[in-house]
């Protein structure tokens, strides 16, 4: 049985931003845009087209200021996430939406944006494997799974895990059968040609190469996490 009556219209939105990873958006969009009796909107700081980290242009539907309260907010990741970690407008938007949304759904390093908004405190969560060590700095309990549900927070691992997470969201909104119908339409039945899809199965040389490639952004994320942790400790001390 669906958890929400099918007569209830649902509003689903995704925060988008410069240098995001478009697959964090477009993968879940394939499923979430097909939720029965629902509308999907893209939301950015303003309605200027943005470019993902590989140059794909995406046109937002709404600005943050004009965005209504959503039932589901999708928060993607990508290198551009780091530029928003201290953006007061974006952080306030995340906090405002989280107060009344049915679900906050992060993909990849979108979890870190949720962390900057204080949404990971005391929560089980996951993210891209290169950023797992950052999660505790935002008060989260890191879980090495593709999809993690803790209350109204649904977090997923790197990039393609967003598809798994989106089908999970569909099942929570409209029931398992709706999710299965969408999965079948998408022909989502992955049989990957290689075994390098996780650090546990990747050849050592491949793992070293990709880890080194992500080293600079990983260090920046760790620094941002430590800054957040220090600010929280300062707030706690001030309240005593």
UniProtKB/TrEMBL annotation:
Residues 15-169 form the DJ-1/PfpI domain. Its EC number is 4.2.1.-. The keyword Transcription does not apply. Keywords: Lyase. It comes from the Bacteria. GO terms for molecular function: lyase activity. SUPFAM superfamilies: Class I glutamine amidotransferase-like. The keyword Lyase applies. It is an enzyme of class 4 (lyase). Residues 217-240 are annotated as: Disordered. InterPro entries: Class_I_gatase-like, DJ-1/PfpI, INH-QAR. This is DJ-1/PfpI family protein. It comes from Dyella halodurans.
């Amino acid at each position: 049985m669906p958890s929400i009556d099918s007569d209830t219209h649902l509003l689903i939105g995704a925060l988008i931003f410069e240098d995001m990873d478009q697959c964090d958006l477009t993968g879940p969009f394939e499923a979430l845009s097909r939720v029965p009796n629902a509308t999907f909107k893209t939301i950015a700081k303003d309605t200027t087209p943005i470019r993902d980290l590989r140059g794909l242009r995406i046109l937002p539907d709404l600005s943050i200021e004009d965005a209504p309260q959503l039932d589901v907010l999708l928060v993607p990741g990508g290198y551009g996430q780091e530029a928003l970690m201290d953006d007061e407008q974006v952080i306030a938007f995340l906090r405002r939406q989280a107060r009344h949304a049915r679900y906050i759904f992060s993909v990849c390093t979108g979890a870190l944006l949720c962390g900057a908004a204080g949404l990971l405190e005391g929560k089980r969560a996951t993210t891209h494997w290169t950023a797992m060590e950052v999660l505790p700095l935002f008060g989260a309990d890191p879980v090495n799974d593709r999809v993690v549900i803790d209350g109204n927070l649904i977090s997923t691992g790197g990039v393609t895990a967003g598809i798994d997470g989106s089908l999970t969201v569909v099942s929570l909104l409209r029931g398992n059968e709706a999710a299965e119908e969408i999965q079948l339409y998408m022909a989502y039945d992955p049989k990957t040609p290689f075994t390098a899809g996780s650090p546990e199965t990747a050849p050592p040389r491949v793992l070293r190469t990709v880890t080194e490639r992500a080293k600079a952004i990983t260090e920046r994320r760790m620094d941002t996490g430590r800054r957040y942790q220090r600010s929280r400790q300062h707030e706690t001390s001030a309240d005593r």
